[in-house]
Amino acid sequence: FFFFFLFFSRSSAKLVAPLGCLVSRQKHTLPDLPYDYAALEPHINAEIMQLHHSKHHATYVNNLNVAEEKYKEALAKGDVTAQVSLQPALKFNGGGHINHTIFWTNLSPNGGGEPKGELMEAIKRDFGSFANFKEKLTAVSVGVQGSGWGWLGYNKEQGRLQIAACANQDPLQGTTGLIPLLGIDVWEHAYYLQYKNVRPDYLKAIWNVINWENVSSRYATCKK
Where are the coiled-coil regions (predicted)? Predict the structure, then answer.
């Protein structure tokens, strides 16, 4: 229980507002997309978005609720073995819910281009230029072995931006301590129907729909 509490408590409540509270036993729910399934075309087609959101993300939510209910029962029984055995399911499905909740807001039909203001200055400071940053995050995302995520995060202790990759559905903050600002999903279900096995083409296209206002807002929030 202590591990799981830390896992969720390290994630900003503001960034993952749809997540319920373990203490109150609220059911997690699938957040609505802030745009239509076809809104990101031609860069990400409607079929991908519908399957990704209504099937894959919904499965993480449902499985997380089931795992939490089993965990609640194990706690009540004092069954430490069952609590430990449930940790992988809690991490995987909880991470999938956290990651996708961020991902949907990181995208926008009015996205693309470059960030402005403080975020752009921080990118130039920490990566030399926006072009260098874009190249590095793309390379890290392409290089994920199997399924996972490429991330731009904020290192609060060092006061700087940092790029990282996470395997599977490992949540950035819960596993690295970095506060998530921008996540790029490189699971095959995020691009395969449109880009087949050519992940670099998907990663080239996704920059056209990055919601820099959302990323900038996250950056401003985590600096407070």
Answer: none
Is there a binding annotation on residue 52?
A: yes
Closest to 114 (Cα-Cα) out of 130, 103, 125: 130
Q: How far apart are CA 117 and CA 52, in angstroms?
A: 32
pLDDT digits (tens, 9 = 90+) for 76-119: 999 999 999 999 999 999 999 999 999 999 999 999 999 999 99
Both structure tokens of 85: 């055995």
**High-pLDDT (> 90) share of the chain, %:** 88
Contacts of 96 by beta carbon, 8 Å cutoff, 6+ apart: 56, 57, 60, 64, 169
Kindly report whether the peptide bond that precedes residue 171 is cis, defined as omega within 30 degrees of 0: no
Is 100 labeled as ligand-binding? yes
Give 207: exposed, middle or buried? Use CB within 10 Å, 0-12, 13-18, 19+: middle
pTM for the structure as a whole: 0.87
Q: What's the CATH number of domain 117-223, 3.40.50.2300, 3.55.40.20, 3.30.200.20, 2.60.40.10?
A: 3.55.40.20
Tell me the one-letter amino acid at 176: T
Terminal alpha carbon distance of the chain:
29
Residues linked to residue 150 through DSSP beta bridges, in sequence order = 165, 184
State which H helix or E strand residue 144 sits in.
none
Answer yes or no: are the C-beta atoms of 97 and 11 closer than 8 Å: no
DSSP 158: T
